[in-house]
Amino acid sequence: MKTFLTAAALAASLGGATAAQAEIIGVSMASVGDTFLTVLKDRIESQAEEIGGIELRSVETNNDGDTQLAQLKAFINSNVDAVVFHVVDEDIGKTLSDMAADADLPIIFVNRPPKNVDSMPAKQSFVASAEHDAGRLQAEEICAVLKETGKQDGATALLLRGPDDHAGAVGRSEAVKTVLATDECDFIKIVAEDVADWDRAKAQEFVAAQIESGVSVDAVFANNDSMALGAIDALKAAGVSMDEVLVGGVDATQGALMSMSAGDMDVTVFQNAAGQGENALLNALDLAAGKAVPSLTFVPFELVTLDNMGMYFGAN
């Protein structure tokens, strides 16, 4: 069963949070190296404080799979009531799923799925946002604005991807390409793309190299805001007017919103880090209390433009 949460539904779910309380919840984050994941983890912690009567045992792995497996084993041995895992990768996630099932321990995967996300055992759930929606919203908006600015006869674009083993990056990139294959947007051609690993500096380096090689850029599609900001760094360093290039990211981080305010970034897509953290904890509490939860809970993405960006300051 899948659940798609509207803002109203999310608020309603929080209202009943005190109904199911577990004493001890283990939390393992693959990393908190970017703003989004920090917000997600912080919201799990603040939500636990608001509910009360919950002990969180939080650990980080520095993106090491063996460390994360050892952490779950330690959680099992210490008799926690449920665990929340942001997994290192899908394969590690599958192993964690198997280990938790063998121990009859409820486990919630948040933001990054296990490989068996479509066939998880009982007492397991995945909380995230539907990644294709992020790429679709970004690409549709950039396509529409390019048309409005008279570039419907032909436009060139760069695509900055997250890691190829990251389901979110794959979903966002696939969705961008799907939109650009439609009759409405097939005037946009991706002339170069690369993996920049969510990293601003790597994105800057790639875009700078494309500009130096003579590539003309009308738009940049980036799988996250950090890479979008790196693209902007490269474009501005090369003397390219940001009035001539559309740049889109994902996450609606504060840096991205400030860039939009300055007239540099044009589009981002809000991924509700706090909403994912809240729902991960609530599902963990319910499973620990013996209640059923949806196997998949999706917190919607939201398009952010100059017209509505004021709503999102302070959110991520």
TrEMBL record:
Molecular functions (GO terms): carbohydrate binding
Keyword Glycosyltransferase attributed: no
Family: Belongs to the bacterial solute-binding protein 2 family.
Name of the featured protein: Monosaccharide ABC transporter substrate-binding protein (CUT2 family)
One GO cellular component term noted in the UniProt record for this chain: cell envelope
SUPFAM superfamilies given in the database record: Periplasmic binding protein-like I
Domain Periplasmic binding protein: 25-291
Pfam families, alphabetized: Peripla_BP_4
Signal peptide residues on this chain, from the entry's feature table: 1-22
Record has 4Fe-4S as a keyword: no
